[in-house]
Amino acid sequence: MKVTSVSTLDDTTATAVVVGVFAELESAPGSRALLQDYSAILKSFDFEGKSGQVLAIPGENGRKLVMVGLGEELDAEGLRQAAARGLKAASSDDVVATTLHQIEIDGADLAVVGGMAMADYRYEDYKSDAKERPELQLELIGGEPDLAGIDASLVVMEAVKKTRDLVNRPSISKSPMTFAQEFAEAVEKLPISARIVSGDELEKEKLAGLIAVGAGSSRPPCLLKLEYRPKDAKRTLALVGKGIVFDSGGLSIKPADYMYDMKCDMAGAAAVSSAILAIARLGLSVNVVAFAVLAENMTGSHAQRPGDVIRYRNGKTVEVLNTDAEGRLVLADGLCLAAEEKPDLIVDMATLTGACKIALGPSIAGVFGNDRSWVEKVVLSAESAGERMWAMPLPDDHDYMIESDVADMKNISTGRYGGAITAALILSKFVGEVPWVHIDVAGPAYMTKADHYIPKGGSGFGVRTLVELARSLS
Ligand code: BES
Ligand code: ZN
Ligand code: ZN
Q: Most exposed residue of 117, 167, 280, 347, measured as fewest CB within 10 angstroms of its CB?
């Protein structure tokens, strides 16, 4: 999406104009003149300016006029969603103009551009009738939009879309190595260094979780390390992302109904890898080291078995009682490596547990950690970025739930309850004393229905929060 600024409606070449209407048809700043004559028509369509309402009607000069309801009280997130709905109603137009950014809310321009950019998304790589479309042009009419801020926001939205593309891509076309190599290529023109650890090197580095989980697949596991160390940066953020390119459950195989969307199980790895690209593009003054732990959880003859024990690089041992609880097994490798960097904070992101989705529903991520103030900071970064996260407990007297008869711990808990907590508890054993926050995105990473700026399928969830967090550390 390309964004420019024009002074008046007469200066735009747009074929559609998106304007805002508050409750009881009170027009938003910038749209008053435009809307004067339309109130009878709006009423006849039962358009009252309620939040969520959208109405497109023929306007002057052959232009489409798209009205979006803003409700009674509007915040930045409401505006972001309204802008997205407006853009979708104008989705067949290549040049769209709007006045929504003139609304008096802090960061209104960024919210409007962000919402529209995220709504301007289709995944059509496998649609044989997909048409090449020109890049969408958005013209902001009037006001004083912060064009530099908007460019920065577009960098983040590109990273969101890159994450969606990767998550939506069928597993057959994203082996662990393909994933790693594509990022290694993507960072060639950026101040980011890439290292891929695979084959015998995984043994040498004692990345035992990746080896065990990846053993059942003909497509071998690997670890991708991306490093951004700008001059003068004072703090270091380490990121770890779960990158299971397909989760069949392994020998503890999933029922078909739980398997069909498991191409999404690498959403954490896609989010952290895309986020570090955006952070480097923005030139934020903070060191970032990202680890994507990449494997395919399959049932081949070399697959790990229930009852096997994994010995990790930090000396800890884990008894694998359910091969479908594989995310924690590979994340443990990434967390060991991240802790060795001695960062100020480790953040891991993972489609880790169905339990978290049951606890918080499909659109909210669970946030756990060993340091309350960092958990709060991450939740606040999410809030200002427009993503929904909720702090969850990580009690220090629940180790009995992961006690193993033969190893230091087992990879599932005794009993059915608290599955998101016990998964986090296992992860906590691999970060030592380093402040660490775990974000379980099993719900919001992949949506079964579209809403405002979130499409069906991969949502790109987490990228905006990670960039916002990096910004707050820079
Ligand atoms: N990848 C799944 C979790 C998941 C579920 C992600 C739904 C996205 C949507 C994970 O590897 C898994 O299978 N977890 C098991 C753990 C259980 C065996 C302890 C689960 O949540 O059922
Ligand atoms: Zn699993
Ligand atoms: Zn999984």
A: 280
